[in-house]
Amino acid sequence: MRGELMLNGAVRRIEGPLLYVQRGAQVGLNEAVEILGVTGAPRVGRIAALDDASMIIEVLESTTGLGLEDTRIRLKAEPLRFSVGPGLLGRVFNSVGQPLDGGPPIPAAQRMRIDGLAINPTARALPRDFIETSISTIDLMNSLVRGQKLPLFSCGGLPHDRLATQIAQRARLRGKAAGQFAIVFVGIGVPHDTAEAFRLAMESSGALEHTVMFLNRADEPSTQRLLTPRYALTAAEYLAFTEGRHVLVILTDMTNYCEALREVSASHGEIPSRKGYPGYMYSDLASLYERAGCIKGLPGTLTQLPILTMPGEDIGHPIPDLTGYITEGQIVLARDLDHKGVYPPVAVLPSLSRLMDAGTGKGYTHRDHPNLAHQLFAGYARATRVRVLASVMGQEGLSETDRRYLEFGDAFEHKLVSQDGPRTLEESMDVGWRLLRLLPEAELSRLSDEQIAQHIRRETADA
Question: Which residues are paired to 8 by β-bridges?
Fold first, then answer.
């Protein structure tokens, strides 16, 4: 392997975060470089494009003060790497893995490539078991399974940052594996006050002890925004597949990541695709999301909960559209529920966890959990249709059964979807059983006779 090389006087043009450099050595795409100006510390960069005569270097810090004649470039002869080790938990890092908390650098047990390594599909194991988030509409209705990637689709102005913080504070494993749980929390393109609020919330709750935080602020270069999730996922892979932990990665906001991808692509002069985003955005997002999963023979798992705001509240926009193709379901936040004062405003009907059946039921959560969730979903779907009917003909023209569904729909939103504090799965199930007692027993077609006798008739008689 070749060693480091220094290029002097090779910079031909500087445009924003990009250096256009005369190629004076054999280099590879995405190799790390150091940029040295007349003053200041070396700046980190990477080779973003090249041809036979020239190359483009993305500078991951400000280019202020760099000149054409006096800028030197040190070629590192390796891709960008992140030094990881046993001291990761409890630390706060910036976009490129440098400590923000005033602590020392991490003693390196390994130096891992930030772009990760492709996982052989035959080495993947089916995600199993359950992560309890304390949110009823997720735990009960759209369960998060270890090794899954389950995005949360939000809109501007909805409380997704608050929800992300609460999940990070309260998420846990059940049973013997509880002590092997860890969180990697990633803020991408967030304002300074939001970044500080994230940090303080984790510190004050004590959750920072089993959390690693990566905070990319809105005023930092867009090139750094593209690297933040890669550094964070590298830390998560170390915790999961080297230390054997079950890691939940929360990324907010992936829309900021995609906007940075569009900005950097335009600065390279690349031909845009849908709505100005680069044509390779699908594969770029896949390179992040597909780092989640379970690997045969390794004890840990890596689960992702990416959060994105849908531009124009359009679920067909390229960002949520491509995310939906890659991931295994979605949790959708609704503005109409937020206007009703429902928190968290999770829209149950368009939400889906495709791997829920693999991690719930007997041996994982509770044997009655799947049937209860299916019956609640069916009941709420019917209540939504009855609401439309009532808006046309009035409640007076409804049957008694339909009026009971209207009552059920309102109670479902204000007693199950809305919650003042954290709930265990058992508490969420208790709320679900109480709601189903509002419906005629003949309508509970997704429950077994035994479940009806145990949870509906007996409790109704006791009441």
Answer: 72
| Average pLDDT rounded to a whole number, residues 322-336 | 96
pLDDT at 327 over 70: yes
Per the listing, tokens 């909805």 go with 158
- Supply φ then ψ for residue 416, to 5 degrees: -105, -55
Give the pTM. Answer: 0.92
pLDDT at 68: 86
Long-range contacts of 125-129 (CB under 8 A, 24+ apart): 125/293, 125/294, 125/295, 125/296, 126/294, 126/358, 127/293, 127/294, 127/301, 127/303, 127/355, 127/358, 127/359, 128/294, 128/358, 128/359, 128/364, 129/173, 129/177, 129/359, 129/364
C-alpha span between 212 and 190 (Å, rounded): 17
Name the pairing type of β-strands 5-8 and 72-79: antiparallel
DSSP string over 135-172:
-HHHHTTS-EETT-B--EEE-TTSSHHHHHHHHHHH-E
Quick one: tokens of 62? Answer: 């400000």
Question: What letter represents residue 444's amino acid?
Answer: L
pLDDT score for 27: 87
Residue 8: Cβ within 10 Å count: 12
If pLDDT is split at 50, 70 and 90, which confidence band does 351 have? very high
Spell out the SS3 assignment of 381-441.
Answer: HHHHHHHHHHHHHCHHHCCHHHHHHHHHHHHHHHHHHCCCCCCCHHHHHHHHHHHHCCCCH
What's the pLDDT score for residue 271? 87
Q: How far is Cα 315 from Cα 296, in angstroms, rounded to an integer?
A: 35
Buried b / exposed e over 413-450, threshold 16 CB at 10 Å, is beebbbbeebbebebbbebbbbbbebbeeebbebbeee
Residues 6+ apart with CB under 8 A from 259: 189, 222
Each residue of 205-219: b (16+ CB within 10 Å) or e?
eebbebbbbbbbbee
User: How do residues 79-105 score in pLDDT, each as one tens digit?
Assistant: 999 999 998 999 999 998 999 998 898
Dist CA 252 CA 156 (whole Å): 13
Q: Report the run of H or E that residue 20 belongs to, with start and end.
A: strand 18-22
